[in-house]
Amino acid sequence: MSDLVAKYVALQSLVKEIAAETSDAYDDETVAQLAITHETAVRQLQSAGNRRILEVSDRDAHRAAGCVTLAEFLQTKLRITQPKKRLKEIQALESMHAMTGEKLPPVCPNTARELAAGTIGPDHVHAVLDVMAKIPTAVDPEHRAFAEKTLAEFATTLTPKEIAAAGVRILAHLDPDGTLTDDRDRARNRKLNLGCQDSQLMSKLTATLDPITRALFDVVLAKWAAPGMNNPDDDQSPKGDGSEISSDVLREAADRDCRSQSQRNHDALKALFDAAVNGGLLGASHRGLPPQIIVSITDAQLREHAGVARTATGTDLPISEVVKLAATAQTHLAVFSDVTGEPLFFGRGRRLASQAQRLMAFAKYGGCSKDNCPVPFAHTEMHHAEHDWADGGLTDATDLAPACGPHNRAVGSEPHQWSTEKITDGPDRGRYGWRRNTDPPETLRANHLHRIDELLHQHSSSNDLWADPPDLSQRPRQLIDVEHQLARLAAERLPPAPRIDITWPPDIDVGAA
Predict the structure, then answer these.
(1) Which residues, in sequence order, are CB contacts of 372 under 8 Å at separation 6+?
(2) pLDDT by 10-residue block (mean), the chain, 513 residues
(3) What b/e readout covers 370-385, taking b as 16+ CB neighbours within 10 angstroms?
(4) Could you point out which of 31, 147, 332, 469 has its C-alpha 20 to 30 Å from the C-alpha of 211?
(5) Cα 461 from Cα 463, distance rounded (Å)
(6) pTM listed for this prediction
């Protein structure tokens, strides 16, 4: 056992011993100092952990742990919830290799030194990096280095918010009249991030817009977010841009509008997206699917008017919202070949999967089929999972599985690559599992990230959590109408023009819906 491995084994043992101890026998001053020492050690280990991750990256050692990419290794093996943020920290604080092989000094050496000493934590580090990213490119290296040194010193005594405030003053000193900031700086700092859905299925949108995008956004909001426009709480509210609405109608709608400006901005953005999706702006296809809201639900969810549905892009929708969409749209029922009449078996005559095959794969997998991969279905490719196309594989629905680009390209015959095989028993029976070529055949692993509801239902049923069936006698009339419409469409086998696609799992009897 090497010295470093032995030290980490000893560290884990020491951590267990520390965790089992209490500070009851010590005075208050010692108890406080123990807490300070503990947090200092945690921050020091963060710095050492950055070096370990860099070593994994330099040697592509993540492949030995069964991960195709370094980000996948951080997320699945190291359990780091924001891998991109951690990698950004490593790139700024660690000595990286140049293209010619020599070691380069850290971009932020003073910040790296303070983290290694345990005097600052990750939040302080990212506050410093955020300020450094805003320094104009035209600022000379000497002033840039002085700014980093000053921020690192501030970080030892200031909070992250106070570091940001100090950064504003440093930026004002470096570029007092704003003449150094140019299009390169604005292009480097532009961004728009859509956060994860919370417990209410709401999402936070944050953005840093360049001047032209801001000006365009202002024009859109001035028209679409005007009082009375695009109000979802008012059936008489003008929709879209309201160009054909009389001023009297708009004024009356404005008088009824009780929304805040922030809510009007939200509703305007929603109306704009609806116009883009349902107005044909996105074209006819994206990765073989119509660029529309595609939802996978079961007949039980529809009958019970409860649960959460997952879209092809990875968004969770409450069933009540799915019902509203279906009730106000020309519903396209994309079930499978027995309803649409489209053939699902093409053999060697066609390499690309059809839309019907992709819809079936979405209903079956929900996203990338590689275990622990969070990529939603809309960003996947259809992988010839039984046999690769180059090896004589067939483009049949039974032989296909969705896979994101990196995982699709990771399949091959080399020892470090992966194989896909169909699982023959257990809850994943009929789906394709993944295993490294160096793993034994019985280690096939399926992806459960996109089927949480199904697994939760299986677990809950076994524990009698849902023993009492819901009362369905008081279902809304709207839901009953949607059920009748779906049943009629299935019987006629003639789906109307699409707006929202509802795909059903292959084992569902659609006629019973």
Answers:
(1) 72, 75, 76, 447, 449
(2) 86 95 94 96 96 95 90 93 94 91 93 97 96 92 94 95 93 85 88 92 94 94 92 90 82 93 95 88 80 76 75 86 68 41 53 82 90 90 88 84 92 89 87 90 86 67 51 50 51 42 41 36
(3) bbbbebbbbbbbbbbb
(4) 147
(5) 5
(6) 0.68
Count CB atoms within 10 A of the CB of residue 322.
23
Report the pLDDT value the prediction gives residue 203, as an integer from 0 to 100.
Answer: 95
pLDDT attached to residue 397: 82
Cα 171 to Cα 358: distance, rounded to the nearest angstrom: 51
H/E run at residue 15? helix 3-20
**CA dist., res. 339 & res. 489, Å (int):** 9
Q: Alpha helix (H) ranges present in 312-427?
A: 319-328, 337-340, 355-365, 405-409
In the DSSP assignment, the letter for residue 481 is H
- Strand 308-311, strand 316-318: pairing: antiparallel
How many whole angstroms separate alpha carbon 371 and alpha carbon 245?
52
DSSP of 209-272: --HHHHHHHHHHHHHHTSTTTT-TT-TTS--TT-TTS-HHHHHHHHHH----HHHHHHHHHHHH
| Residues 350 and 357: beta-carbon distance below 8 Å | no
Whole-angstrom distance, CA of residue 402 vs CA of residue 366? 9
Q: Strand, helix or coil at 400?
A: strand
Q: Name the residue with tokens 């809304």.
A: 476
